[in-house]
């Protein structure tokens, strides 16, 4: 049985090494005689897994001690509401840059919590570029500025984040966390569901600057208050133990490759293979994203007719490629090439794209 050429948008491919390691430890984790799923989250072995996962993430993203790392549940979608519940201050605004469907959803949730508005939007050009914020000084009285660092559905990505902000920058990094080095110090809060670049679904990573924890109010339900999780090493209630364990294995794998710098190089190589094929196809394949906003993680493109698109997807499927359909809201094709997608699989796809076009 060979592994699928997995280009799913999420959940998606995990590193084969990680799956093999999990298989090896499946019945007997580290001499415990148990699967990680079977042990108490208060046991020493599990506390170690939890601790190691936090430490590895701290190392890989160079996160200083000014930040707490939390492992939560509810996905990025819960963070759309939980973040403003904690950070949006009375009489101030949450500012949002709209760069795709996920940022629209984040704004909509924040508006249920308090005062929030869009300060830049790429909607008029069908989210082909990351929009510019015209006047940064107008943000002064806000509680935070929210961006979506990678737009999974449209295939665009921020390549330079707003600088010299007077308010905390909050980023939804669900689909590009750890695809490249970042300067965590320029953010107040980062959140990401794990199921694209970090592991399986079920665990959501939140990286929050400690001083921002002072904004949370005692009236918040305990589970929705960041302080609860920060004060309990994310062990306040039963965590998603299997997901955190697999997250730890993925982080060990990333570390063994050379960390964020090494991953960025491979990711650039992978993305370049597909963008190159799009660019030299003379319009046979049309990239959705403008060149300066192209994503390293999600390559979106269309073919010139529905018949061609259908033929392309059907043949691809036949050859063992999965997940190449564009998101149901935009159509076309999308190849998600997250960290765990091997270079050889992307080479195979680029080769197929070329052969299909030539024919
Ligand atoms: C997938 C995704 C989400 C939604 O994540 P859930 O874990 O399903 O809630 C949010 N934001 C971005 C950028 C995503 O790619």
Outline of the structure:
The protein is α/β, with parallel strands linked by helices and 359 residues long.
Distance between the termini: 29 Å
- Indicate the CATH topology of the largest domain: Aspartate Aminotransferase, domain 2
List cofactors, ions and other ligands. Answer: pyridoxal-5'-phosphate
Taking pLDDT < 50 over at least 5 consecutive residues as the criterion, the unreliable ranges are none
CATH architecture of the largest domain: 3-Layer(aba) Sandwich
Shape: globular
> Biggest sheet: strands, sense, closure?
7 strands, mixed
* Strand line-up of the largest beta sheet: 2-10-9-8-5-3-4
Helix fraction, binned, reads: 25-40%
SS class: alpha/beta
Explain this structure to me?
This protein is an alpha/beta fold. It folds into two domains: 240 residues, Type I PLP-dependent aspartate aminotransferase-like (Major domain) (Aspartate Aminotransferase, domain 2, 3-Layer(aba) Sandwich); 100 residues, Aspartate Aminotransferase, domain 1, CATH 3.90.1150.10. 35% of the residues lie in helices and 17% in strands. The strands form four sheets. It has a seven-stranded mixed sheet with strand order 2-10-9-8-5-3-4, sandwiched between helices. A three-stranded antiparallel sheet has the order 11-12-14. Strands 1-13 form a two-stranded parallel ribbon. The longest helix is centred in the last third of the chain and has 21 residues. The protein starts with a strand and ends with a helix. The model has no long low-confidence stretch (mean pLDDT 97). Bound molecules: pyridoxal-5'-phosphate. Pyridoxal-5'-phosphate binds next to helix 3. Pathway: Amino-acid biosynthesis; L-serine biosynthesis; L-serine from 3-phospho-D-glycerate: step 2/3. Catalyzes the reversible conversion of 3-phosphohydroxypyruvate to phosphoserine and of 3-hydroxy-2-oxo-4-phosphonooxybutanoate to phosphohydroxythreonine.
């Amino acid at each position: 049985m060979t592994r699928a050429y997995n280009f799913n948008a999420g959940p998606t491919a995990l590193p084969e090494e990680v799956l093999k390691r999990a298989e090896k430890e499946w019945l007997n984790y580290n001499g415990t005689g148990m699967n990680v799923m079977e042990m108490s989250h208060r046991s020493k072995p599990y506390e170690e897994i939890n601790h190691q996962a936090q430490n590895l993430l701290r190392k890989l993203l160079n996160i200083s001690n000014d930040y707490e790392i939390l492992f939560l549940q509810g996905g990025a979608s819960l963070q759309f509401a939980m973040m403003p519940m904690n950070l949006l201050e009375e009489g101030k605004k949450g500012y949002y840059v709209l760069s795709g469907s996920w940022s629209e959803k984040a704004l909509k949730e924040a508006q249920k919590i308090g005062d929030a508005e869009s300060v830049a939007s790429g909607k008029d050009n069908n989210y082909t570029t990351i929009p510019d914020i015209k006047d940064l000084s107008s943000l002064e009285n806000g509680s935070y500025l929210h961006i979506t660092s990678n737009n999974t559905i449209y295939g665009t990505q921020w390549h330079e984040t707003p600088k010299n902000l007077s308010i905390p920058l909050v980023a939804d990094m669900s689909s590009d966390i750890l695809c490249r080095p970042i300067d965590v110090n320029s953010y107040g809060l980062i959140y990401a569901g794990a199921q694209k670049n970090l592991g399986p679904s079920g665990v959501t990573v939140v990286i929050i600057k400690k001083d921002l924890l002072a904004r949370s109010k005692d009236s918040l339900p305990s589970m929705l208050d960041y302080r609860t999780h920060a004060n309990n090493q994310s062990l306040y209630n039963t965590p998603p133990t299997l997901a955190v364990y697999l997250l730890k294995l993925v982080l060990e794998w990333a570390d063994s490759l050379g960390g964020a710098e090494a991953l960025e190089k491979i990711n650039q190589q992978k993305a370049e293979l597909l963008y190159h094929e799009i660019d030299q196809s003379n319009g046979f394949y049309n990239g959705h994203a403008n060149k300066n906003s192209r994503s390293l993680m999600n390559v979106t493109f269309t073919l010139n007719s529905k018949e061609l698109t259908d033929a392309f997807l059907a043949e691809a499927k036949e050859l063992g490629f999965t997940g190449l359909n564009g998101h149901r809201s935009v159509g076309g094709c999308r190849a998600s090439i997250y960290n765990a997608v091997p270079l050889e699989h992307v080479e195979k796809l680029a080769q197929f794209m070329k052969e299909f076009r030539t024919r």
